[in-house]
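Co-fold these.
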Amino acid sequence: MAIRLDMTMSVDGYVVGPDDSVDAPMGDGGFRLFNWLDRRNDPGPSGQVVAESMATRAVIAGRRTFEHAGQWNGDHHDGVPIFILTREIPAEPPPGSVRYVTDAREAAALARAAAGDADVVVMGAGAPQALLRVGELDEMELHVVPVLLGRGRRLFDDLPRVDLELVRRLTTGEEVDPAQRVVHLRYRVR
Amino acid sequence: MGKIVLYMSMSVDGFIAGPDDSEEHGLGVGGEVLHGWLADGGVDPASHRPSDEAGATVFDEVLATGAVITGRRTFEFAGGWVGDHHDGVPIFVLTRAAPPEPPPGSARYVTDIASCVAEAKAAAGDRDVLLHGAATAQECLRAGLLDEMQLSVVPVLLGRGRRLFADLPHVELELVRVLDGPAVQHLGYRVER
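Predicted complex below.
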């Protein structure tokens, strides 16, 4: 029902470190952002938000995220349809359940239709920015990691003003290793 | 000895002021929303005390600090707080070049971050030091002199403006406190060194 961004970011707003590439998809030092995922199978907030992400029935991502993730071998989770926003559709057909789309509104419409009653998950930075600009992003689940990466790729850049409303805040318990602690902030886009 | 603590309100996309901030519009275009969690009041900072518990807690901490460090831009955009941020505590204004005219009230100009921090700590005694402003926070982080950050995260994407964090080294933090206000999350981090 909702198109929801699901991304991990540093306190200073980066989703990958500097110099990201296909060979170094998280950039320099960026894998620090994923320490909290070591607890993805635990009961508690981190397990809960990962399970919610995996319960979505369609994926929207940008071309860069898609390529840097090795195209997820054509299957992000459970074979759900994946819509990749790209400026130009490559000559080679995409793998698995992937489809290339050049327009953010079209990607949103296709993903909503494919997901039915379930939610759509959005990943990357370029794709959510494109969806925000056309008013097609409904929610954001931000996993805020206690680190300043200092440099890298920002999640939010050069956007119009967008008002949000906090709908949920989950925090890893204090018993957990500080490096795996994270604040999960869910916002509704107003 | 007290800690150096950064207190700042910031948007979800990391801005502490909207675009085109100036002495007339210290928070830039649309930036007033960032201070919405502070209660409306007069020119007296104490009258801005929020009525909710989380907001009041953070507000009271700020006013319990024994010295203030800020940058020249923040100082001037805030009208120099008419020389008194709160209770007449010393205000250390970091600037590249100290102007010939002395600053008002309890403020004084300092040209390097290390002595700025040392003097503010000495002045504050057992109390914490309030750090306010983006450029000064960045200088403090680069010099490894910041102890804590209390970020009041406001549910808005400002889109453009002045960022709190830019071009820093990698800095590990430790989450020490989360307080929920009616329309703001106060995230407290200890800076690891």
